[in-house]
Amino acid sequence: MTAARRTLAELRSTAPDGPADAADLSCITSAVAIVASSRGGSSLLHQILSDQPDVLSISGEHTALYKLNRLDRGPDGSDALEPDVAFDRAEFSRDFMSLLGSGPARPPSDAVGLKRYAAVVTRRLALQWPLEQIGYPTVEDAVTRALRTCPGPDDPDTLFAAVLRQLRADHPRLDPCCYDLPPALRGRPADDALRPPHDGYCIEEPPFVVPRARTAAGPDALRRHPVVIKSSVDAYRLPLLRRLMPNARIRVIHLTRNPAASVNGLYDGWRDRGFFSYDVSEQHTLSIDGYSELGSAARRWWNFDIPPGWGKFVDQPLERVCAHQWAGAHRAALDGLGPDTADAVLRVPFERILDPGTREPTLRSVFAFAGIPQPPGPVDFPVVMATARPRPARWRRRADLVLPALDQPAVRAVADELGYHQGQEERWL
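Structure tokens predicted for Sulfotransferase (429 residues):
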């Protein structure tokens, strides 16, 4: 954490793309927060909204900024924080502004663009690989060399893969397999071991976001355009949003997804090489059937969010852990959303976005609610943070495992409240 802070502090004094000093979270007048369970479709919806003109957003989640500012685990070890938790709001604001942008990626087509892109990459590497301490001059040199040979510098994935190749000469731990890159650019892992990118503490959780230079947000943009955010832990800390953005009208999109699909996605993610959140070995040794037998790291590292009551599940089968995570996030949202935490709430079943028959009217209602102009044509459906190629009802191949895990009273209660009733599973996508 200290090393990351040092790199970011050094960069702040030299970055050519930093926000104006007057740009602060208090300048935001409109915020749209997507609240959902992990593996509930929030990454896709966040990307769809972020791709629209004049929308401000951070690439990926802002969970890393919570961790960077020590807004991580509450007294019970879960992601739930006390509403009055202490933190340095000015520092958090500076961190948030440094990642906030709008519009498509801006390729480094000239000397100024190169420096801007190098600053963006340096900032992200500090969050992703804090133990490596890779400074701006090193990254600028790597970008310069990568641009000489990169076959597709206008493509952010191709360019960043080339930059990584340059940096790995002196920093071999920078593993492309930890990134949300196309398979051809990720390559194959050195082995099949399940382990986090580094021991101890992950600030940004893998799969890591690919850095993209976008238009920085100034005070005027913050006042005129909506800021779209999403973090898997926001369901547990809704009051914090008001403290972060005190002058904003906060609209919350509560994105739901049937528990079978979400639990199946969580199950895949736990067994994937990404999604490590915390080393919990100081409290528990994990003995989760379906996960902990995959290696020593799987007895120490929790994946995704940590709901209240998680300690009761450290020796339960993985599918039950995943069901508890789904129910925990939505229970927190159901109980926590109200006039004190949101000015308006729209509940959207992700299935209505997936279904071509209901997609267009559903997205129209989402854009209208968020105060974002309707796009002129169909929106693109990017593949974001996926462990397998998305397809409807992928959970059915694991139905014998997933459906019994939903037969827990707390899970059934949440499912019923959200409209996912027992006996209707054949309708679930």
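The radius of gyration is 21 Å.
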